[in-house]
Predict the 3D structure of the following.
Amino acid sequence: MDSQAIATQPVHDAHEAHVHAPYLRHHFETVEQQREASSFGMWLFLLTEVMFFGGMFTAYLIYRNWYYPAFVVGSHQLSIVLGTINTAVLICSSFTMAMGVYSAEMKQRKALVGWLLATIVLGFVFLGIKADEYHEKWEKHHVPGLNFSIQEFTHPTNPEEKALPADMAQKTQVYFSLYFAMTGMHALHMVVGISILLVLVVRAWAGAYTQGHMTTIENFGLYWHFVDIVWIFLFPLLYLISRHQ
Amino acid sequence: MSTATILKLPPQETARLPKRSYLNNEYGLKSWLLTGDHKRIAILYLISITFFFFVGGAMAGLIRLELLTPQSDLMATDTYNKVFTMHGIIMVFLFLVPSVPAVIGNFVIPIMVGAKDLAFPKVNLLSWYLYLAGGAFTLAALILGGVDTGWTFTTPLSTHYLNTHVITAGLGIFVAGFSSIFTGLNFIVTIHRMRAPGMTWFRLPLFVWSNYAASILMVLGTPVLAITLVLVILERAIGIGVFDPSKGGDPLLFQHLFWFYSHPAVYIMILPGMGVISEVISTFSRKRVFGYTAVAFSSVAIAVFGFFVWAHHMFIMGVSNYSALVFSLLTMLVAVPSAIKIFNWAATLYKGSITFETPMLYSFGFMGLFTIGGLTGVFLGSLGMDIHLTETYFIVAHFHFVMVGGMLMAYLSGIHFWWPKMTGRMYPEGVSKLAALVTFIGFNLTFFPQFILGYLGMPRRYAAYPPEFQVLNILSTAGATVLGVGYLLPMIYMTWSLKYGKIAGSNPWQATGLEWQIQSPPLTENFIETPIVDHEAYDYEWLAHQTEHEVQTVG
């Protein structure tokens, strides 16, 4: 569409020209401009999210260099099986989300609702497994500040683990602090995502996104993929430190 | 009036406010609280930041009153700690950061680029509510008993050793931070996507450029502060060990993360102010801003350099000598784009037809005081000097010259400049000139003695000081009183002018910006027809042609 030509027309004409697009907000000249603006805004928001998580990744980078042995034994306390399952679950949820966006594009209302529901289910599976992992940390006294003991690191029950000197064993608290802060912030983003999904499902059922206006679904898809990508970084950084030892 | 003026008011006997405008488009509290109109949101911001400015100002008054005498007699020392902390938190996060962008920027940026509104009006309204929520948390912290960490929330002081309301205040700043992120995001998208046909990047007024640069800082910097505060709150509430040395954490990391935002934050505060100065200087010297492109890019350069200088707050905290050297060098680099601006404004004045309206007086104040503030910043950026001057009143004087002498002057300049556009009425010219003068004198009397105090070694953040410093402190407190009058005056006569001010007409300053080509106060949709821009910014010849054209059609 030639946005230039339309942009130069008086306001009331522009409104009349777009009576067929009720979702065009009054301050945009064209649907195209509106779509580009929302998508650009979403990318900028994701940029702020990158900086938000970036603070914690910086802390991780520094402390991992300083306290490498503590990070190794801390990492060995995590369940690589659960972590892998969760990674697979999230990648699948990104697929279902992408299919949701595709269905919205194809104007298939029921398929859209179906894919969104599948995404919600996968989101809950992820959070369930994460909760189980948190519970296990609590049982093993690995929650810094609330319930922490360095017993496991100075006198390991697993004969393959090397015992750490007491001062380095203390540093495992930094590892677990970052573990909880980073996965906790990630889980919080999942909870927010699932809450938004619930609203989207209801509105998609009413047919809101399958009549040509699907910016909301597209933008939410971007958010969901972003949360997924954060996990793709968290998984190796937290679970896979020096697994070959 | 004896001085020359370009003020061109409509004949007062026939002057009328436009029948329809954004102010009377709808009535009732609900039409304001649920508005999506950027101009109404700007007014909401204006009211709320004025409130917080006077709360923060009251704290400043208490500080100066306490420092009248060498002993700590007005209040206990821990109360004094709380007072200067609340002064800092309120002034930085609830006044300076949102002042020019959220009030003036919100009002004029969409009009300057030729748009009907910001790209996301609902997000804009949300950002005001987040600001209010942040303000409410901060006031709650104040009323519950205050915070005494200083506005910098230094760990482990804030996480372990203090029994005050750090979490409440931290949450307040966290929430207010998102308000600032959303404002910045909205500006960037609007400037990229909503420009009118013909409004190319290099036809944008410099006010838009400087707000664009500040928005980049808001969008990239503020989230880092947010996560840092989350970690501080978690450490305090639960006891995780990211900054706690007893668990292996490093308090210096907190300083790095905090200043990664909080140094760029000073550019978030000053850049929009510089934008105001560009507009005002050009208008009242009837000349295009000298070196338009250089001034535009210097804003972006300040934003970029601003991200790589944070560790100059940490020279005495044990960072390595080599990194201190690099950060010192980078710090001095920021002086280059700042100087480009000052020199270009001076060159704009050269051979201009200068008139001395109130906004111009404030802008002159800005230029002088910001230059002093900026140059003392170079003192502090050099490693040897910094070790002696840091944590003394020299620092306090330095950043008040930049923030109060610079930014607040720019804010007042902008408020006076766009007041006729916002309200359709003029502020009283005589008394406002007096206020500008009083502010300037009061400011210098307050803060210049503090340079000397700091140079002599008086440390900041203490309620008591050796008796030999008393004379200078009395001068400073006296100055603060004068300054207080300087700030109360505009508050009073601006309110008065809402009802009794002269009708301004659409373009009282004969300025070139798009915002001056529409009625005052503007319509809700700003433009009747989407403007088509075919001239550069600050093109006074184009404006003269417009006027001729107008006369011809009427005749």
Observations:
- Confidence is low (pLDDT under 50) at residues 1-18 of chain A.
